Amino acid sequence: MKFKERNLKIFRGIHISEKSSIISEKKNSFIIKVLKNANKKEIKNMLEKIFKVNVLKINTLIVKGKKKNNRKGNSNKYGFKKDWKKVYITLKKGDSFNF
User: What is the Cα–Cα distance from 1 to 8, expressed in whole angstroms?
Assistant: First the structure.
């Protein structure tokens, strides 16, 4: 039971950008956001069970959070957005995601 819950929590959403749309058109690859502490084996199992696709290759990277200014009055305080993990997924030919 815990394994099924973990699979659902790993997936954070699809990453949509100009670069991701170009990659998905040229190659059979997609970019998604996942939990920061998820590893490649967990990600592959999650994709194969939830989306029922055959995964060829997974590349992961951690995107650093941006610095944000928070100016209130005379103080010059700043904070950071959270770091997050980006995953490049290459699928076998003929497979695709249906979000």
Answer: 11
